[in-house]
Amino acid sequence: MTDFHAAIPKAELHLHIEGTLEPEMMVALAARNRVAIPFASVEEVRAAYRFTDLQSFLDIYYAGAEVLRTEEDFHDLAAAYFDRAAADGVVHAEIFFDPQTHTHRGIPFDTVARGLFAAVEGAQAKHGMTVEIIMSYLRHLDEDDAFATLKLAEPWLDRFVGVGLDSSEVGNPPAKFARVFAASRERGLKLCAHAGEEGPPAYIHEALDVLKVDRIDHGNRAMEDPALVARLARAAMTLTVCPLSNVALRNVDTLADHPIDRMLDAGLRATIHSDDPAYFGGYIAENFRSVAAARNLSRAQVVTLARNSFLGAFLTDATLAGHL
Ligand code: ES4
Ligand code: ZN
């Protein structure tokens, strides 16, 4: 049965495609590619998904990505995600991929991009879904490495909607990537950055002031800084919040403590997304459903959250109007 939370049309704006690698596919790709993984079964993979913070997750997430080798692997991964997203009411998706996770282990940028874009064409044909791809720089690496990635992306740049910034936040502030974000903007790319997930409110200010981002990923910790909340509200800045991720990575204790409705009440343009759903226990509809139950959200609040996902998307005005 399709419930309200799955049925309501929505845009997915915060989804790492590598984070949709389900244990079943991890085990199957390990066998297909003859890659050794430190797990004997799907159950063992799942049992390893107990995180204490962002880094404890990232270590397992990068290890899992080792099974992704061929263009077909990236196609199959993304195609499986688009099928799930369509069933969850996603009509438009802007998905991240982490090129450096793959180029650093010898997988050519073009192999990854070809596989992903083949799946995008399939999703458009099969589901009528519109899809954009955002290439995300890894912030634990240096800015020169991000520049090298931008160079590798050159033949694909008119097909990417934007760039992002993810991985280990604390100790890797936005300003570390000031020049590569400026260069990305000059090439016509939209800009987003993870900020205020584990890092302090100052990192959100910096993403706005130094990187000049168009969208903030997570942003939960803005709630500690009333002046920042006022600034984000005034700018109608979209914050792509991921409730199940926040619980899995211990940024909030339980869903019952999640700030999503307090963020809306404070005037923030918050939205709900799934981050790394294969690791955090649910895709976008489950994020909506479980936080709505835990926080007793009204229908009107759920509608606002879904509507905000379109307002925050990198859509043209004409396409946006069709979704509202
Ligand atoms: C991520 Cl939850 C999260 N935070 C930062 N970087 C990431 N990459 C994939 N998931
Ligand atoms: Zn994320």
Automatic annotation (TrEMBL):
Q: Which residues bind substrate?
A: 276
Q: Which cofactor does it need?
A: Zn(2+)
Provide the residue positions that the database annotates as binding Zn(2+): 14, 16, 194, 275
Kindly identify the residues recorded as the active site.
Answer: 197 (proton donor)
Q: Name the SUPFAM superfamilies for this protein.
A: Metallo-dependent hydrolases (SSF51556)
Positions of the Adenosine deaminase domain: 9-318
UniProt keyword annotations, A-Z: Hydrolase, Metal-binding, Nucleotide metabolism, Zinc
| EC numbers for this chain | 3.5.4.2
**Hydrolase among the record's keywords?**
yes
Question: What reaction(s) does this enzyme catalyze?
Answer: adenine + H2O + H(+) = hypoxanthine + NH4(+)
Site feature (Important for catalytic activity) residues: 218
**Alphabetical list of InterPro entries matching this protein:** A_deaminase_dom, ADE, Ado/ade_deaminase, Metal_Hydrolase
Family membership noted in the UniProt record: Belongs to the metallo-dependent hydrolases superfamily. Adenosine and AMP deaminases family. Adenine deaminase type 2 subfamily.
**The protein's name in its UniProt record:** Adenine deaminase
User: Can you name the source organism?
Assistant: Sphingomonas cynarae
